[in-house]
Amino acid sequence: MSRLLRSAIFSGNTVRSTSGRTVASLRRDSINCGPIPRCCRYSSKLSPSASASASASASASAALRPTPSDLQASAAYRDSLPVCAVDKKRVMIGWDTRTWSRFHHVWLRDHCRCTKCFHQITKQRLVNTFEIPADIEPLEVAPTAEGLSVTWSGTQPHLSIYPWSWLQSNSYDPPLEHARSSQEKVLWGSKIQQHPPAVSYEEVMNPDDKGLHKWLLKIDEFGFCFVNGVPPTPEATEELSMRIGFIRETQYGKFWDFTSDLAKGDTAYTTLALGAHTDNTYFTDPCGIQLFHLLSHTGGTGGATLLVDGFYVASILRATHPSVYSLLSRVPVIAHAAGEPGALYIPSPSSGYPVLGHGRVTGELVQVRWNNDDRSVVKGVTGDEMEEWYNAIRVWHKLLTSPDSEYWVQLSAGTAVAVDNHRVLHGRSAFDGKRRMCGAYIGIDEYKSKLTVLQERFEINLPQVVQGRSIWHPHI
Predict the structure, then answer these.
(1) pTM score of the predicted model
(2) Which has the minimum average pLDDT: 187-201, 371-385, 393-407?
(3) Cα separation of 74 and 136, whole Å?
(4) Rounded distance, CA 457 to CA 460, Å?
(5) Measured on CA atoms in the order 123, 128, 134, 139, is the torsion positive or negative?
(6) How many Cβ atoms are within 10 Å of 433's Cβ, its own excluded?
(7) What is the pLDDT confidence band of residue 252, given thresholds at 50, 70 and 90?
(8) What structural domains does the chain harbor?
């Protein structure tokens, strides 16, 4: 943005320089900002007393006039700041000539992070939201190096400062593209076998947490990651699991160590082949990470592990069969776990959840829930859609079982794998002999929490850090 535009005064649709010359016209339909009655910049207005004082000291200040280099530095400084304007309801911020964000006054006042309004240690709101006047307006708004400075009216004026990066990441009118985008995902098919994501056990267990950060980033990026060099014992595998977070206990126990003896009422405890599926479709909150480790397989063959990227398959489905994608994103599927006499699990609400789950705000695909073996009676489908629904799951199944989608790998003792159960489906081929497997579930919130803490530690640099966490962290 030019220096002239940054120092301009906004009047309706037209931007005028301080000399009154028209320098640009802003179409409201292009920025959807509405009339902009006054410009917010470093305050150039002086109170009457300050003005008199300034006149009295004019001769003294003449000797302190800025040099050309001072003026150049000042111009560069102004150019680095966003332009902003204010009306009765909102503050408008121009990040460049085409990109604007609008923030309501009440929203800004509610999000003040000063020591009086926000507890710096507990990171909890102290301001009483319900005492903020609905028609609150700022006394002054100004761009500064630290961020947007807002002075609020009241018995005592209140100053709030909002970092520019924080405002960009929390822009809601409109949401900014870079702020909405989540961590980049790598979608994959069978060719992932050439370079599957992997880390070493030694890296992950190092107390400096750099290897743990690397591991969780790979899970986030690919939906799974191998860990090589794990001691082939339940104890070492359990310790590895707990590097992510506490283990989630279910009807199958806490940390599992099992063979194909039907000790639990689930086909996982048999020698049968298992098609690609996600676990816990019968839970309201399916586990986030499933970690498993083949400890031994003696006296037989088979039992290869199958992994399928549900997001990859869903992307193909959306491109080739949009109506099927829409149906599987809309129609809920009921599931159950009923193999244990002392437990009968169904999700809440009992109508179930769609196969493809999306973020409510972004619309992005965030979860795949699919286990045809655990599917209950189909009754969430209307009579007119029943045949269409069965056709939809046939198409889905065909894509899941395509050679392009399936990644088969023969696990061996010493190699564990962690799978994002909200994205990657897993299965196995039939086998014979004695196969001993161990593993655990970790909740999605525990996994995301650990990943976020490690990203905070190794990736981002935010202002005003108090007890290890910035008050401007994007998640708070």
Answers:
(1) 0.81
(2) 371-385
(3) 33
(4) 7
(5) negative
(6) 14
(7) confident
(8) 3-42+73-180 (3.30.2020.30), 190-457 (3.60.130.10)
